[in-house]
Amino acid sequence: MADKPGFKLQSGNVMPVIGLGTYAPKQGEDEVITAVKVGVRAGYRHLDCAAIYRNERAVGHAIKELIVQDTIKREDLFVTSKLWNTCHRPDLVRSSLKKSLYDLGLTYLDLYLIHWPIGLQEGGEFLPKDEDGTVLFSDVDFVETWKALEDCVDEGLVKDIGLSNFNSQQVSRILDIARIRPSNIQIEIHLHFANSKLIQFCQEKGISVTAYSPLGSPGNKTVPFVHSLQEPLVQEIAQKKGKLPSQIILRFLVQRNLCVIPKSVTPTRVTENFQIFDFELDSEEVKQLETLNKNHRLNLETHSMKHQYYPFNIEY
Known about the structure:
36% of the residues lie in helices and 13% in strands.
């Protein structure tokens, strides 16, 4: 029987190895509330949220219902949120965190991440643009943003802080000035995008790694080859193990010493995605699955933005 590991963070708090992703842009609040309640009742104790998802009030509603109706306590849950790009200015960081806490109905977060290493113009839309449709950037250096996050830890508003979508050079800039080291980094990782060098770099620095889009975004219609879930090798191993393709992929990533945060609002899928702890992949199966890497990013649209703090001309 495989265990349910977790990652001990800088604070000593433990982050469960699998979390429920709550990004659901096409679903209403009721679907999100249901998904979170189903997920926690199925065993999830880690919820991955963000201000830009625009549904933290729904997640908070679900948490409140679980605490009232079930035996769940706040301390049983590990809740992550993320600072959006328009709030990188140090004087905006605390208020943005407090807004997420208010919406979630919580007094503290377990983990707060800088969502992207790129600042956008403050005080307006989530994606501010000029009349010509050009994205409007902020000149705030994320190093200053990080210092404001450290102050939030001091105040007890969050236990651990971290990064998301940073490359190795950007992580190094944070490590060079950090009074409180980043506990976690969340980056795109799936069968077709192994991201191995960045994973190794971060893990060697003592930073745990969370894989977002771990199933390769099944709804993405732009993938130029067979989707991860339809890979013949994945289906072959799934049939042999008596498991689902999604469970094979998530187990594979967990065995790479990664945290995974699959997202779904379909109750059956939410439950199925958690059922990865009653089997293991052997070394040969792991090696075979590693051959499916194509170094193909799915989040190309955001990665195409050019900015002084967001260079994509380096390997990782």
